[in-house]
Write a structure and sequence with these properties.
With 181 residues, the chain is mainly α. It has 8 helices and no strands. It has one domain: MFS general substrate transporter like domains (Growth Hormone, Chain: A, Up-down Bundle). The longest helix is centred in the first third of the chain and has 31 residues.
C-alpha cells in the first residue's frame, strides 16, 4: 500500500512539474511577446517533438532528460531576468519545451514497469498536470511572473527527489525500460 501511494505521488509530482514548465513557458511568452496561436503551436510542436525523442532514444538515461529539462528551463528563466535578445529567449523556450516533452514521455516508458498498468501512470501524471496548470495560472495572475520564476525554480531544481523516494533509485535513474515483474 505504501509503495502504491509513493508511485501515485511520483506520477503526480512529475505531471505537476511538467505543467509548471510548459504553461510557465506559454504564459511568459504570451505576456512578454505576443498572445497569438503561433506561440502556442510552436511550443506545442516542440513539446511533441520532444515526446518523440523521449520515445525513440533508448540510449539516453531518464535522469539526463530530467536534468536537461530542468536546466533548460532555468536558463530560460535567467535569460528573461537579464537583457537577452528576444530570438534567443524564443529559442531557449523551444529547447525547454522539447526537453520537457522528452522527460514526460521517458517518465511514462520507464515508470510504467512499476505500476499495475500504463493507464495508472497516465492518470496520475495527468491529474498532477491539471493541478499544475491551474496553480501556474493562479500564481501568474495573483503574484506575477517573478514569483512564477521563483516558484518554478524551486519546483524544477529538485525534480528527481520523488524518483529517489520511489524506493529503487538505481533502477529508476539508471535504466531505460523495465520488464514487468
Amino acid at each position: 500500500m505504501e509503495k502504491t501511494i509513493r508511485l501515485v505521488l511520483v506520477a503526480f509530482a512529475v505531471g505537476f512539474t511538467l505543467a509548471f514548465i510548459q504553461f510557465g513557458l506559454i504564459y511568459t511568452l504570451n505576456i512578454r511577446f505576443a498572445s497569438t496561436v503561433s506561440v502556442y503551436l510552436i511550443l506545442f510542436g516542440a513539446w511533441l517533438f520532444g515526446m518523440m525523442l523521449g520515445l525513440i532514444t533508448p540510449d539516453i538515461r531518464y535522469s539526463r532528460w530530467v536534468a536537461a529539462a530542468s536546466l533548460s528551463y532555468l536558463i530560460f528563466c535567467v535569460s528573461l531576468l537579464i537583457d537577452v535578445p528576444n530570438n534567443i529567449v524564443n529559442f531557449l523556450a523551444i529547447v525547454s519545451a522539447m526537453f520537457s516533452g522528452a522527460w514526460g514521455m521517458r517518465f511514462v516508458r520507464v515508470f510504467s514497469a512499476y505500476y499495475p498498468s500504463a493507464r495508472m501512470v497516465l492518470l496520475w501524471e495527468n491529474n498532477g498536470f491539471i493541478v499544475g496548470i491551474i496553480l501556474t495560472l493562479c500564481v501568474i495572475i495573483f503574484y506575477g511572473l517573478f514569483v512564477s520564476f521563483v516558484s518554478t525554480f524551486l519546483i524544477v531544481s529538485v525534480p528527481w527527489l520523488p524518483i529517489i523516494w520511489c524506493g529503487r533509485p538505481q533502477e529508476a535513474l539508471g535504466k531505460i525500460s523495465f520488464k514487468k515483474t
